[in-house]
Amino acid sequence: MFxxxxxxxxxxxxxxxxxxxxxxxxxxxxxxxxxxxxxxxLSGPVDAAKVLSAFRDNDGFPNSMTAADRDKFLSLxxxxxxxxxxxxxxxxxxxxxxxxxxxxxxxxxxxxxxDNTRMQKHLRSCIDGETGAETWCMLDxxxxxxxxxxxxxxxxxxxxxxxPCPGQTKCDxxxxxxxxxxxxxxxYDIVQNSETASVGYIPLTNFCINGKGQFSxxxxxxxxxNSS
Length: 228
Hints:
Blueprint: H1 4-19, H2 28-57, H3 70-80, E1 86-88, E2 94-98, E3 101-105, E4 112-113, H4 120-123, E5 126-127, E6 134-135, E7 144-148, E8 162-164, H5 176-181, E9 184-186, E10 188-192, E11 199-200, E12 205-208
Antiparallel strand pairs: 1-2, 2-3, 3-12, 4-11, 5-6, 7-10, 8-9
Helix pairs in contact: 1-2
């Protein structure tokens, strides 16, 4: 798979090659190659999404890909060995792989009150990057976070208030088809933490994985990222 830098270099080289020929002509072979490279670069995430969708349609995720399906997802992602396969949900859940490491974010919203008892497991889950000492997960001033309208949301972070999504026409009560496809959006704002507010965040955590693709801290069971 090619990085964006590789694609840019290829396009620049192609442009110079074209300029070196007759200015009135266009090198269609170069255009074809650029299209092929871009397609190769962009097809990875699309293919990964198709795999997840098919697995979900065939009841591979019994909990509709909520946090309870984390291990199911990890087993699938590790089996297909597609780099950067991940999923993120509206409740904040995020999980996936980067080569031999796993990463995971528990569901919920950052910007929570540090006195909220059910969020203490998140507040006390950070470590200092230099010393390794435990530290609180506190948002810096100016950091952005999702703020539910009317409260912090439920235990998974889903905002409780809903309203019709923008750009929709109100359905006629007699129009069953319209009502079935009408979309509702959860209500929230993206806000910045102030200088004086003391609020916490939910960290994205990196994990080691074992031979089955599951997060693990068991000595001797962790995959060596440098092994084949």
